[in-house]
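Sat 14:20. Reprocessing the chain from the morning session after the first attempt stalled halfway. Input below, unchanged.
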Amino acid sequence: MSEQRTAVNEDVWIPTSCGGCYAQCGIKAHRVDGVVVGLEGNPETPAGSGRICAKGTAQLMMLYDRHRVNYPVKRTNPEKGVGVDPKWERISWDEALETIISKLENMKDPRGTYFQATTVQTSEIRFAVPAFMRAWGFKNYWVSGAVCGAGTAPTS
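Finished this time. Tokens:
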């Protein structure tokens, strides 16, 4: 029996940060031919001191979860509540962006001076929201949110 081997075209380690919790530990992602195959702590960053916890390692499973939604959807059922099917419908990226822009335009203070955003304070949001507010033209804004982890820190 001959063993077939395919050539590896890419084998890289990419420095990044973990999004599993608020610690935002420095990690390295091992990518082979476009697929992340492993994560490990990055000893060159102070956050995490070169280590990665079990929750951080599990982020690889979240990345490739077969139930992960990788496209925009919209709720088509206006009724809400426990046990009520939201009747999600897949939409195009253009429709999603147009919907978001129209909602943001309606939220803007007519004087163009103030906006309040309430978010879950994940490591990504901490930097993205202020940059977004400035880019959108808000001179004054307040970003607040939960610091308990909420949906961004699955524990079970």
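The first helix runs from residue 54 to 57.
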